[in-house]
Amino acid sequence: MSTQSRQAYEKVLAVAPDDAEARQALGFVLLDGRWLTEEESYRARGYVKYEGEWMTPAEAQLAQSSAAADQARREAEQRANEAEIAAMEAEARAREAEEEAQRADYPLYWGGWGYGVTYWPSTPVATRPPANRPSWNPDRGSR
User: Fold this and answer.
1) CA–CA dist 87, 91 (Å, integer)
2) What is the mean pLDDT of residues 6-27?
3) What is the SS3 assignment for 56?
4) Of the candidates 49, 47, 42, 8, the residue with the CA atom closest to the CA atom of residue 25
5) Is this prediction's pTM over 0.70?
6) pLDDT for 53-97, tens place per residue?
7) Of 82, 51, 81, nearest to 66 (Cα)?
8) Is the bond preceding residue 57 a cis peptide, omega within 30 degrees?
9) What is the spatial distance between Cα 95 and Cα 85, in angstroms, rounded to a whole number?
10) 34 closest CA partner among 21, 12, 17
11) Structure letter (DSSP) for residue 110
């Protein structure tokens, strides 16, 4: 409503306080024989304003509990996702540690004693020939 219209209706109300057309134009509501603002009429009928809308207290409570349930569901999903990511990261770390442990079992040395690539120990102690026997076998060639 324009400012000029509002001023005209307010002048009408100054002369005739119960003029229905002027009251309605200015946003008043007739409730139980009294002119109230829209907000006052909602409150008089027991409504509450929740997130910008007028509703009954039961509707507001339902909307609140629904919003709380949605928030709890989103938080639970977030925690589940974070736990899944943590489990995947732990598995990856375990695989990396296992691979590192396997690499560490047989360290590789380049150029040990002038023979090129060498694994240490090169021959397990239990399979080495005794020190007092010759290690040469004519069928296998030199050792």
Assistant:
1) 6
2) 87
3) coil
4) 8
5) no
6) 899 999 999 999 999 999 999 999 999 999 999 999 999 999 998
7) 51
8) no
9) 15
10) 17
11) E
